[in-house]
Amino acid sequence: MKRICIFLLTAVLLVFSACSKQDKQAPASSQPSSSFLGQVSSSVPPVSSGAGDSSAASSSLQTSAAPSSQKTPAGKTSSKAGQNSSSASPAKAKTVALTFPEGYTLSQIGDRLEKSSVCKKADFVTAAQNYDFSYYPLVKAIPSNAHRAYKLEGYLYPDTYEFYVGMKPQDAVGRFLRVAEQKIGTKYNYSGMTTDQVVTLASIIEREADDAQDMKLVSSVFHNRLKAKQKLEADATISYCTMYLLNVFGDKYKYYYNTYRCAALPAGPICNPGASALNAAANPAKTDYYYFITSNGKYYYQKTLDEHNAKLKELGMSPSSTVSG
């Protein structure tokens, strides 16, 4: 009887022990499901702040469980991380292509930029005047001159440019200067003249002549007068004072740009010249001309004041001592 009781007690203990082991193993049997969710969650790239609402994040979580046809190497972040797969790619900034003809002034360029919403004219002019562009060799070589109205006039090279709408004004100025470095640089030289003086003379030629041939002849007139220490008396410089200086600066600079008053070249360029005018300034025709007249699109050149006045009379113009009529 005693043995039977011991046997029954042992059997009960064995059964109880088996049940306890089964209860302890039960949570472990559900672990694979929990582990799978953990793996899926860790494979989802974090949603950046402002990338979307919670539904978008939820959608990302669901789709990331599926195999991806485009794999990101381990340790690298996908460029699309944090973006909803249905989101459109970021729109490119709007651009505009603008052409600036030879002879345009800084003021005219500013007007065109503002009209096309690239930047405000006032901001463009301020950047051109005050921003430090001395890392450009051409700009660094511009001499300091208290009588110069616009420092970068002459160096905003005429060409076609592409701009961003709403771009920084100093970046817009920089685009012109980079091209000027390529197109002007140290290409145009004339004995006894600096690059800035060549650019200044070219700017007058640009406004006084229409084609490459006349530009070289007009250049010869100006070079001859400079050598003879005569005033240039170029009408284009008066127009520049009237149209672009007086309304901004009053009388402050007009005596330094009006070549009927200043001794030689004006204090700075009067526009932004192109290749033909620059080439003419550096390579004038060899002549004995000191005067020229324009009438009905034609150019007439004279060696003396008497010849000049006689031609003026012949063309029905009043005799004068001006270089151009």
Q: What does this protein look like?
A:
The protein contains 13 helices and four strands. A two-stranded antiparallel ribbon has the order 1-2. By secondary structure, the protein is mainly alpha-helical. Helix 5 crosses helix 7, helix 8 packs across helix 12 (275-282) and helix 9 (212-227) packs parallel to helix 12 (275-282). Among the domains are: 95-183, no CATH class; 201-285, no CATH class; 288-325.
Give keywords:
two-stranded antiparallel ribbon; mainly alpha; 4 strands; elongated; 325 residues; 13 helices; two-stranded antiparallel sheet
Explain briefly what this protein structure is.
Residues 1-6 and 18-90 have low confidence and may be disordered.
